[in-house]
Structure formats: C-alpha cells, structure tokens
Amino acid sequence: MGLKWCGNRPYIIRYVVIVLICVLELTSTEAVTTAEEFHFTHNYYNATIYEKAPGKTYLTPTRKMGIYVSDPTLEVKYRIFDGDKTNIFRAEEYRVGDFVFLRVRTHTSSHGVLNREFQSHYHLKIKAVAQVESSTTLTATADLIITVADRNDLRPLFDQEFYNVTVSEDATLHSNIVKVTAFDGDIGINSEIYYSFRQWTNTFAIHPTSGVISLTGQLNYFQQKEYELEISAEDRGPKSSETRSYKDRNAIVKIWVTQKNFFAPEIHVQRLSSFQENEPGETTYAVLNIIDKDIGQNGQIGNVRILDGPYSEHFKIVQGPIKGDYDVVIMESLERESLPHGFNVTVEASDLGQPPKISQSIIFVDISANDDPPLFSDDVLFASVEEIAPIGTPVIYLHAKDKDVGRSAEILYEIASGNDNGLFRINKNSGLISTASALNTEINDNVELVVNAVDRANMEAIRKGTVKVNITVVDCNDNAPIFNISDKNVYVDENLPIGSEVYKVEAFDLDQGENSRISFSIANQNSVPFEIDHFTGVMRTTQVLDYESMKRVHRVKISASDWGSPFIRRSEIILSMHVRNINDNGPLFEKVDCSGYLSREAPIGTELVVITAIDFDNDIINYNIQSGNDDGCFEIGITTGVLTLNCSITEPEGSKRNLVIMASDGVHDSEPVFVTLTLVNNKRNFQLSNSDANIQCEPTNATQELTKQLQLSKQRNEANSDDDLIFETTTKVPNRHAPVFTGRIIFNVSESVAIGTTLFTVSTIDPDHGYAGMVVYVINDGDPYDQFKVNTTDGRLIVMAKLDRELIPRYDIEIIASDLAEVGSRKSASTIVSINVLDENDNAPVFEKTSYDVSVSEGILINSTIKQVLATDRDLNQNGKITYSLLAHADTFAVNKASGFITIKKLLDREMVEVYYLPVKAADNGSIPLASTATVTVTVLDVNDNIPRFIPEIYNVKIREDLPIGTVVTTVTAEDQDKGENGRVTYRLTYGSDDKFQIDENTGVIRITGKLDFESRQIYNVSVHAEDGGDPALMSACVINVEIIDVNENLEPPVFSSFVEIGYVKENLPVDSVVMYVSASDPDGIDDGRGLVTYSIRDGSGLGRFSIDNNGTIRTKQVLDRETTSHYWLTVYAQDRGLVPLHARLEVFINVIDVNDNVPQMQHPVYYMEITENSDEGTVVGQVTATDKDENPSQSLTYKITKPRSSQQYKVGKQATDKKKKNKKKKIIIIMKN
C-alpha cells in the first residue's frame, strides 16, 4: 500500500496482487503475400510429352512447377502468353496447401497434333496473376521448355530399292561385297536399324547394324551365276499398331558371279640362231607360242610385251600369222661388249580375264663378238694443281673402260694435244697425269689437254677413246704488288681542310683471288700530315698545310701489301708531296698614319712621300688613292707607292687635304693608310724644313714579321730534316739454307692397305723465313705404277692405288723437298723412303656353285646325309686350308668342317619351317681369315602330323537378345598347319546350341537360328569340333561362351494415379509412425519377386524427416511438432527395375495435425494496475492477455482470480471474439465490486 496526495489531502492507494489462470487461447498468424514473395520456384522448367498425344494430356515435368502462397485466400491464375502460336497447350492451376501447382496440358482439340519430326521443342512463357486487394495485382513469369518425346511412328526406308554388284567366284571369304543403307526418321532406339535376310543363306552374311554384306561361302560360277537377296530393315523400337499396319518395303540385292581366271598364259619359246653384232635392220630372234587353258574371255591372250630391263628397248613383239604365235624382233644393232656372256630378255603375256593372269618367260640373248673403243666416264674431266707444285706432282688419274675382253680391253694413255708448253705428262699404263714443268698461273692459269685411251687390239682393229682434261693452275701468291704510278711528285694546295683528298695511289697484283687483294699503308718512321685509305689508296690531309710557315715538300713512303697466304708479299714507293702556294695573305703597309705640310708653291710632280707595302705570298702589289682626290691633284705610283703632286695648289679652297691610300695584290686589299696634308704658303716656312713637302709616317712591324717568317721557312725546309726520315727496306727475303730431311725412312705396310691411307709424313727443317723457308715435296723416282703420292705442302705420303705384294714386294721412293724462294735462288734436298709390302691373305675360298637345292621328308631320320658342298682357295698353306661351317640353323643341321657333308641333327617339322635356307661358310685359316658363302635350300615335304587348333581355344561373345535370325554371331577358325587334304578343316556344333545357333561346316561361320530371350537364358556354352581331311583324320574342339545382352525393353515408366497426394499425421507421434501409402504401377514391368517398383524420397521440405519403403509406405523419421512446422512437402520417386531404369515423380503434401500439448502463456509475468479509492463498481482496473500455441477452433480461454483473499472485491470477465478472425485472443477485464 502506498500514500499519495490529492490536493492538500493525502489519499491511500492499495496494491492488490491478482493471480489469473488462463486455460486456452487460439492463435493464428495473419499472412499477407508480398510482390517479392510471389514468384515461381524456378525461372525455367523442363517437361516432356509424347508426340501424337491425345487431347487433355498433361506434360510430365522434371520438377515441381508453381508458386508457394502463404495466404489461403489468395487466388492464383496461370496463362501462356508466348511460345504457343498454334494454341496446342493450356495452363491450369491446382492448389494444395501453400503451393499452387502449374499444370500444362494439350487442348481437347489438339488430339494427335504433336509431331516430333516436325517440331521437337516448344518454349512457352507462363505468367501467374493474383489479386491481393482491389488495387494490388501480383504477377510472376517463368519459362517452360517442352521436349516432344519420340514415338516409333516411322518405319525404316532403304535409300534405294535395288542393288547390283559383281563378285568374282574366287573372292576371299569374309570380304565385303556391298553395303545397304536404310534411314529412320525417329530417334534413339526407334531409329536404330537391324538388317537381315528374308530368306536363309549360308553363302552371305549381313551385319545387323552396318548393313554390310560379306561373303561367308565359296562361290562357284558353274554352280550358280546369280544370287538375289531380299533385305529387311527393322527398327529396334516398340511396334505400335500403326507401324505394324505399314507395308514392308524391303531392298533387293542382285549379286552376279563372274568366272574366275584360273590359268595364266603358257609361253613356249622357239629360239633361233645367235644374233650377230652390229647386224643391220630388224631381225627375228625368237618365236613365241602362247596358249591359255581357260575358256571364254579368260582364255584369250590380251597383251604380250618385253619388260623393261637392260637392252629391252632394242626388242619388240610382233604378232605372227598363226593365232598364238608372236615374233621377238631385234630393232637395233647390238654389241657383245655390253654383256660379253649374253643377257636375258623377259617376255610377259597376260590374258583378258578380270583380273588378268600374267606369266613371264626369260629368253637368253647371245651375241657374237665384236669390239668397242675405250670410253671415259665423261667427255670433259676437271682437275686443279697449285702453281708451286714441283715437277712430277700428281694431278689426276684417268680411267677408261673397254667393253671388249682380252687384249682388246687393255688400254694405253697418251696426251694428244693441248700440252704445247710441256707442262704435263701422262703415265701410259696408269693414266696418271702429273706436272712436267714449273707452273705459273700468270702465264697459264688453265690448260686443256686432249687425252686418248687406245686399246691394244691388232693394228688394223685398234680403237681409241678421247677425253678433254681441263686443268686449273691455282694461284699461290708468287707475285708482289706493282705500283701504277708514273710521276712520284704530287702537288698539294695549302690551306685545304683536314681530310681533303690529295692523291690516289694505284697498284695491282698479278696473282688471283685473295692473293691479288691489296692493302695500303704509310711506312714513314715519323708522322707526316697525310693518311691513306688502306683499301682504296686515297691519300688525305690530316692537318691544314701552310706554304709560308710549314714544310713545303714531304717525302711519304707508301707500302702496298697483298692478302696472300701463308705469307704476304709487299712493295714500297716514295712520293714527294709538294705544298703549293696560294694567295692567302693580304698586303701589309710598312708605315701608316702619315701627316705633314705641303707648300702651295710646290711644283707639279713634287714627290710627297713613299708609302710601300709587303705581301707574305710575294704577290705583285698595286696602290691607289681610295678617296680625297676628287680633283686629281695627287697621284700615286701604281707599283711604286710614290705619292706625287699632280696640279697647282696656289689657290686652293682649303688649307688641308685628307687622302686614303690602299694597296691590293689582286685578291686581297690592305688596311687603308690615311695621309693628312696641311697647305702652307711660304716655302721657307720652318714646317717645311727647306723643302716643298714635309710628311712623316708611323712605322709598322710588317718588315720584321716577314723576316721572321722567311727564317722559319728556311729552317723547316732544309734538306734531310727529321720529317723526311725514311728507312730504306727491301721486300726480298734471302734464301740461305736448303731443306734438311730428318733421316732415312724405312717402314712396312700391308698389301691390303686402303687407298687414301696416309703412310707417313715426310718432314724437313728450313731455317729461312717466309717463302724461302716454305717447303714443297714431290716423288721423283721409285714408283713405277704411280701407286703413291706425296702431299705437296705437308709431306704426307698417301696410297693412291691398290698394292699387290705378288707384283712389287718393295718400293724405294725418292722424295725431293724444295723451298719456295725467288726463282733462281731456290734450294732443295732429297731422301729415300723404303716401303716393304707385307703379304696378306687376300684370296677367299670359292664354292663350285653359289647355291644348292635338296628336298627331304619331315620324317627323315637324324644323322641322315642330305648334301655335300665344295670350295677351293688359291692361297697356299694355312691361307688355303678350308673349314666349313653353318651360319644358321646349326641346331637342326650340321656340316663336316673338312668334307662339307651336311647332315640332320634333329627331327624336322614342316609346319614350323617348310623351307630352310642354309648359308654355308667356307673360311681359310689365314691370320685374318677370308670366307665365302653358298646357300643350300632344303625343302621339307609334308606329313599329316598336326591336329586342327582353334585360335583362340575359348571364344567369348556378347550379343543382343533382339538380333534378327540369320545374324552372324562369330566365326571360329581352326588352323591346321598341314598341307592339302591334311590341312582342310570342317566344323560342327556338338552341344549347347539348343537349336539357337548353326555353324557352316566349311567356313566356321555361326549364325542365330532361333529367337533369343535374356529373361529366359543369359548364357550359352556351345562346343565346336574341327576335323581335318587326313587319313586318319585328326580332330580338336573349342568352347564358345555366348552371353546374351539384355536389351532395354523398359519403354514405359511407372505411373502414379495422381501427380500429388495429401497425407495427415499427428504431432508428437513416435519415430517410424506410418503416415500414408503411395502406389505406382509399371505398365511394362515384369515382377521378378523383388517388386516392380522401388520408391525413394529425393526432395522436399520433409527430406530427412520421412522415409519410404518399397511398398510405398511413408513413415516418420523423427518426432514432429506442429507448432514448429505445420506441414511438409515430399518429392517421391517410383523407379522400375529396367536395364535403363525409368521413374515417375509424385509430390506429397503432409499436414501435421495439432495435439493440445501447450499451456496458455500470459503475455507478462506481472501486471501493475491502479485504481482510485471510492471507485464505482464495474470500474475497469486493467487488462491481462494470454496466448496458446495449439490450434483448435472448438477451444477458448477462460480466466479466474485465485489470489489474494481480497480478490472478492474484483472479478474477471472475457470479451467475445470472432472466430473467423485469424488472431483469436481473449481479453480479461477486471471490474471493481461495490
């Protein structure tokens, strides 16, 4: 209780604590949907519908389509506003709980309108519209992509109705013959085509998917010339009543068998007498008789020709008068020397079969003897030799060939012309051209020799061949540069700018190439005011020259060097460079500033003063009065500078005269001299000094400067000054020493040494410098067959021809070494090189025949002798002793190393090796054994000792269950390595086929003969036997595991009775409580005991809170609370058990039913209320509010006061509520009692 004041009088307020009990309150949320909340679940949806669907067929979407709406009073409408130009579809709405489904179906009038082949997709735009209030409209849009699913409404059509093909009767088994092609406008499995024969055949097979027809049986032209195959094309899709009513449109394949060309033409040669060499005109050499055992066109001869080969162009074939006869005609003369033992010509004949058969025959052509001239490889041969090469240096080997034999083939060489200067010689036997005289490129840089090669036949039959040998003499820098200067005096103007060209030095070198290239330089010891371009020889100034003060003549030493190697050559010349004076100085007066007195009475001609000038250039000076002499009263000597009076001045107008005097050398003018004359009256005036004129001038230093310059010039131009210090040099190098060999050389060399081998390097010592110390070498004697050469510059002794110890066992070769000093001062020395030729085992054994042939049965006994080989060796002793050995198959055969007998070491097997090629080696016993080989060909004859063997022994094949009858499953192959009948194999099925398969006994091709069904049987284990044709026959077996592949016959997905189901469940039920049942049926399913359909929950707000079993029972997975979530959405999938599973989708709405599991709750735990005393009964003291989270329209809240005792003074009441309102709260009013 508290105390308060009212005016001046206090009053008492009592506080009463009232406890209220609330029994129940209904609560509900008033939901209002906003524009942001009003939208489709997705911007894009995908759905399918089969083509030719009847009217009022609903689309099958891939996910839930529509809009969540929390306001139960909000009405949503859908409509299509774009993408349905032909008005096929209709949009509908269907509300369940808080979701308004979008459902799209075909119009009633659109029965069968959809055609996938015409339009496979539709893109619809859907708009949703809802009216919130009279003034507010909500809209949303979404895109719907409709895929028109294919129905198997089309049958395959062949691209052509008839096929014609020609096949030879010898066509290879399993070769492709023709391909048929059909097309189906459907897609997927509906467009996949199987090809099959309408009638059974073992001769051909058709691939079920590619349509390729192949050969599976041997053709025989005489048994059947024509085949007509009717081909059926069926798609793999389900057959509707519509497609079954279509008429079959099969293709016809006609196969024409052509006769095999069995026999090749037979060529019989009738050879005539031998052909004479150089016989004129066309001559028949042989007659051919050609026949063919085939009949018809295959037996007719088509073409007879000479094959390309040596000398084939000399022959032609001419058909004779009798059918089948042909003449071999020689068109041109032939020479025996081209092939002294004759040669072969190959004749080829072909028939008119398709393809033609060809046979060949070799005709030996024998030509009687005649001779030919020796021939060189080319008409012109080229060689080169350095001009420093000593006499006897080898230049080039010539080699001519003579097709003759014997003495007519032996050749001698001679130089016929071109050697007028005797520079070269030729060895008549070896054909080696070498130098015979000193060479000089500057005189003869190229020599063309004409060389004859003459055979050694009888005098009346001697023939010769000719070749031109072009020899280039290579320059070796044996000339120094030569100056091309006629006058050694060069004049240079003074005052030229630095770098001015004043002269060009010219020189030339008689050598060639780099040896003639010249560089210039200045060789003065002291510097000179000039420089020279090293390459052009242009001389330029390096400073400005002055004639008056500098040296006037410079002696410049010019050096010209070539670029030769190994040493350069140089020449020098001294040029006198004269500095030429030019007028570059003006006159200088010796006195200036003249002034004085002149008597008025002075007579005309009076000499007043002498004004002279000097010029450093020593040029002629002229004087003149520049100004002040307008009246001509004065005159100056033009060359003397004497100023005189030239008029009477007794009555002058003024008392002074001012003259300006100038001096000029014709180019330059001097500075002016001013002369001031004061005129006086009396001659005796003291200023005149007793003369008519008294003039004084100021002297200059011009004379002294000129004197100094003359002395300096004299000093600098004295003879033998330091600037002209030049050391005289000489370009000639003295030759004081002769080359010295290091000693006598003796060594051994094998007769098998390779041509081009360097045997030894001859070395010398020559202390001289430059070319005087450079040594060249040459063989002078001891090499009669020109088998060696010594390198000109480095002394390497090289083998040039094959050595033969039996011909020359030792060589004593004289080598001369000469330096390259100036001609006339050269020095030389010689030495003997002794070469002992060592014997080698250079003769290999030779077999009496190069090849041997023998045939043996594969059953021959071990150690049986089958052949003997024999070889001989020209060498003696161990070099001639022969040992035989096998180079291959030594595990199967053996050869006696001494006698050459060949025996069997192990049993033979023709199936492993039918022919052995035995290389037999015959080797001597030399230190380096030589050997030769011969080939023994052993042919093994067959015995039936092999069973047929399957490759592989087990076949694993997978085939589809829906393949058409007649399809080839596989081809088994058994190989029998025997020949003939022993190797011919036949096949048969022994068990396991169950009349579903059949085998071709000759080819092993296995075909389907009965309809297969995966559901009935998945595996066939088929046994195949293979038997050969031997006596007795041998047999083997293999197993074929045929696995049947299930074909997707699952064409229809499961179907729910409705697209949405509604279920109810009370809150607080235990886990695993049953909520509801859903069920789907499978139109084409087969119940295998596991059930047709399996169920799963894959989406929705209740994902994870519910489960479903394969019976479609939905159960709770957790305890539900309505006050937390009042409802759930589930997306249930029903999936069949097909090879390619199909599914259906069902949306499930589960409503959670309320249970009274919540007590009412006051809005505040304590309420404070006030009331004035003496208040009337019924006065409202305050209001308390309570809520209840449960939802039950039949329940209401009641309130009562429980404490304190004074609560009798109060009562609580309730205000009536409208149950239609969403917010159903009860208000409590406290009223005071009286």
UniProtKB/TrEMBL annotation:
**Primary location:** membrane
- Keyword terms, alphabetized: Calcium, Membrane, Repeat, Transmembrane, Transmembrane helix
Residue span of region Disordered: 1206-1226
**What residue ranges carry the coiled-coil annotation?**
none
- Transmembrane ranges? 12-29
The Cadherin domain covers 41-158, 159-267, 267-376, 377-483, 484-589, 598-701, 749-847, 848-950, 951-1056, 1065-1162, 1163-1202
SMART domains cross-referenced by the UniProt entry: CA (SM00112)
Q: Which SUPFAM superfamilies match?
A: Cadherin-like (SSF49313)
Q: Which domain of life does the UniProt lineage start with?
A: Eukaryota
Would I find Transmembrane among this entry's keywords?
yes
Compartment list: Membrane
What is this protein identified as? Cadherin domain-containing protein
Which organism was this protein described from? Tegillarca granosa
Q: What is the lineage of its organism?
A: Eukaryota, Metazoa, Spiralia, Lophotrochozoa, Mollusca
